[in-house]
Known about the structure:
It is a single chain. By secondary structure, the chain is mainly alpha-helical. It has one domain (53-182). 56% of the residues lie in helices and 7% in strands. The strands form two sheets. The protein has a two-stranded antiparallel sheet with strand order 1-2. Strands 3-4 form a two-stranded antiparallel sheet. The chain starts with a strand and ends with a helix. The structure holds zinc ion. Zinc ion is lined by residues 10, 12-13, 15, 25, 27-28, 30.
Amino acid sequence: MGIRVHALRCANCGAPVEDPKEQRCSFCGVYLLRLSRLELATIDGKVGVFRSLRPLYLAFIAAAVLSVVLIYFVFFDSLSETLLVRISPIWFLLGVVGTCGLYTEKAVKLVLAQKAETLQDGLIKGTASLPLLLRLLVGLIFVAPRLLINLNKTSSPFWITTTTTAVWAALLYLFLVGIFPAL
Length: 183
Ligand SMILES: [Zn+2]
């Protein structure tokens, strides 16, 4: 399974992890990341090091932008208001996958470069250069995983992104089915 999260090896140097409760690699000192199998690869002879899924997340961002263009600029006049509301989760959720994936991977890279102490620290540092409004928006997207996922036990961008998107999809569904028709 791609989703099982583990830290059998340090994602930085590939050294085996002796105690699964260890916070840091006893060999190189880097914070131990709990990544999914999808995100681990053998690179330059090192087993179990971080493999970025960045092209996948960039494709989701591109799909989100394309949906916005199609919905609001190309087909806007031919869509009813109700339909517009109903299909708005499409671009939003595509955007959540892309944004969450890119910023959690950025956090992982900051940890591996020893520029962040933990994944949480990497998320804060990774979004620090954004303009305030965007930073708030990205922060808002991450509220869901922080409430549901223990980032010390799971630091897999893939798993965090999947959970975050599922939470947002459920919230939007509740809103569109339960609250919006009553407005
Ligand atoms: Zn290491």
